[in-house]
Design goal:
By secondary structure, the protein is of the alpha+beta class. The protein has helices spanning 8-23, 28-39, 59-68, 81-90, 108-129, 183-186; strands spanning 2-3, 44-45, 99-103, 138-143, 147-152, 177-181. It contains 6 helices and 6 strands, in the order βααβααβαβββα. The chain is elongated.
Length: 187
């Protein structure tokens, strides 16, 4: 998906060319193609979309290249969450070094509290990494229906086993994070 802002004069000039191309009996297809080609120059990339049931050849490398170029990639799928996670890993959207944040809330308040919790913890982590908060090696918070979470920063690669919030609570160590939201939470 791309966009290009046209002046009224540019549009009218293109429209004349396009209408002439449509009326041309001998070279209609070529002239219409050229008018489209002229319109599609100097466009700004807005996004891309695709629908496919199986992973095509080159997809993982393409997604990895897009991400390395700083392009944000989102995937929307109707699959079960576990299947979606496996696909995200297989197409190199997720890597083993990322923190995966699973958002599975059953009501708006819990979803909002969980998102706010992760944002606060990311900010605390930033302060800790910047040396502004080196005395605190644990992060604590409350989410949902009074559920408390404590993340020990020294256990950077393991989920916190003592938390009452099962799969959601992964330490927020790395800069790269992936967010997985189920359909019910999205609604």
């Amino acid at each position: 998906m791309c966009k290009r802002t046209l002046t009224e004069k540019e549009y009218k000039q293109w429209l004349i060319t396009y209408e002439q191309a449509e009326r041309d009996v001998n070279h209609r297809d070529r002239l219409i193609f050229e008018s489209y080609h002229h319109m599609e120059m100097q466009m700004e990339l807005v996004g891309a979309t695709g629908i496919e049931d199986r992973l095509q050849e080159g997809v993982p490398e393409t997604i990895e290249s897009l991400r390395k170029a700083g392009i944000v990639v989102w995937v929307l799928t109707g699959d079960k969450q576990e299947t979606a996670l496996n696909i995200a890993y297989s197409c190199k959207l997720f890597s083993s070094t990322m923190d995966i944040i699973k958002l599975n809330a059953r009501n708006k308040d819990t979803a909002e509290e969980t998102i706010n919790f992760y944002l606060e913890q990311a900010e605390k982590m930033k302060d800790t990494m910047d040396g502004k908060n080196d005395t605190n090696h644990c992060m604590e918070g409350h989410i949902g229906d009074g559920e408390s979470v404590r993340i020990n920063l020294s256990q950077a690669s393991e989920p916190h086993r003592g938390s009452t919030v099962s799969e959601l609570m992964y330490p927020l160590k790395s800069k790269e994070r992936a967010l997985v939201v189920d359909g019910r939470t999205l609604t």
